[in-house]
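Researcher: Dear colleague, please comment on this protein.
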Amino acid sequence: MSGYRQKKIAMINDLSGYGRCSLTVAIPIISAMKVQCCPIPTSILSNHTGFPVYFFDDYTGKMPAYIEKWKELDLSFDGIVSGFLGSEDQIGIVMDMIRDFGHEDTKIIIDPIMGDHGETYATYTQAMCRRMKALVSMGSIVTPNLTEACILTDRPFRKKGWTREELKEMARDIQAMGPGSVVITGVNQGGYLVNVVAEGEREISFPKTIRVGQERPGTGDVFSSVVAAAAVRGWKLEEGVRLAASFVKQCIRRSEELNIPTANGVCFEEVMDVLIHAVSSRHESEKC
């Protein structure tokens, strides 16, 4: 008699011990959605770099040997997710892993973390941006913010004034690079945050949520973790995006209520029951 086969995601990101971002966000959130999260650390930090001091240990040189043991164990994954990558070498390692572990049914979720607010991160060179485009071409789902979407499509950034037709064209241009589906995240439109969802050849949708509180580190990691877990569970992309956006909003609102310092990210632990209920409700409806 065969046992229960739990869905598994290989999550490639840094491990920051304090500040609620990257793997310390992904592991509990993906787990709450009843998916096993298997981390591959790209670096180890005492806390994220938004704090005035931090310890940092680059893990690039150890990643190939780490992944090789998974190959020897003949492991397989329903999803492979990449977060922040700090060098061309790391991008290449992720591409190799996708070739080695990806199969027809594997969801490859690429969060091309390259910049924000119209600026490329200081650590990102032009060569890294070109390499990221190659990684994006291997994705099933790609989740750039507006800045990153502009970088990927060689468009000039502007903070506001984007029409739906322009956003549609940008999403389709990213799809033309290779990924089946694209989510351009967090586009500011008035008092709303809009996500542009291009799922395969379906009509592009624009689910939105009311903007609350102030921007906090780690919210992108929260969002992509929910989307990834929903995808490997077989949900439609827009359904996962709506849950992710709603959850992020509730995390921010609760963090504001509790006066959590901005650098500490969002206290997602306080509202984790939202995800647990969403997955349980979906599971019950699927049995009916």
User: Anything to note?
Assistant: The two ends are 25 Å apart (CA to CA).
